[in-house]
Amino acid sequence: MDHLSTEYTGFPADVIPLQYQALLLTDERRMKAFADAIERAVRPGMHVLDLGAGTGVLSYFAARAGAVVTAIEREPRVFATARAALRSAVGDAVRIVHADARDYLPEEPVDLVLCEMLHVGLLRERQVEVMGAFKRRYLHHVGGPLPRFLPEACVQAVQPVEQDFTYMGYTVPAPVFQLPESRQPRTVEAAPPQVFQQFFWTEPLPARCAADLTFVAERPAVVNAVRLITKNLLTLTYEPSGSVDWTMNYLVVPVSEPVEVLTGDEVRVRFAYAPGDEIPALTDDLRVSVPAHAR
User: Are 191 and 216 in contact (CB under 8 A)?
Assistant: First the structure.
């Protein structure tokens, strides 16, 4: 899920109420990316499993492409809403099951697994936990090979920034989400982003999300925050070669001790947290500094 559903709602990250699930349907950039990716990845007759189906829209896209779909959703009100919507849209092409994605196991092999329990930075949501457990259970009980996953891969980057946290004279250094396609007049990019993590979901999954990177400042700035960028490669394409991507909303988080840099200065950014951790796990561990040799 993107931040529309997982920003602090008062609910556990893996229990997303219906009103927040529904907000995702209005995110046209997200919806188009998943619709395009599923159209390219699914062939008629495929068996598709949707783990954590939410309102069922990804199952709908897969059924529309001709797949036989099993959708798994745990939250009762969301499950009931998805069941009614899917039945109205695609009849019995989707079998929706009231179960927990963390321990569900299909009765027969599947061709493609959809799992969109996503938050920028792999924070809050349980994507890594759910997918890792699913792969272990599947290989043990069903056997190999693993099915294809959608998303197929994840790339994470970070960059040092100067962020204006003052609003009508009132300063609140708090995490801020940003739309990737929008101009950000409150943000000064001290240096370009650098990748700190990338992996395919079929490969061993990360136990930590960690960075220890050195940047070279391109302009004077007071680095008081970092911007986290997460791009999901939803599906790889071969004709033409490439991928259908979805870059999630950026997350800007403040640092406890800002540093002033000039053009050409080195800036070191360090942090580590576990996938699924809350945002404070990142902010509490985040350190930005200018290396001693650069002074």
Answer: yes
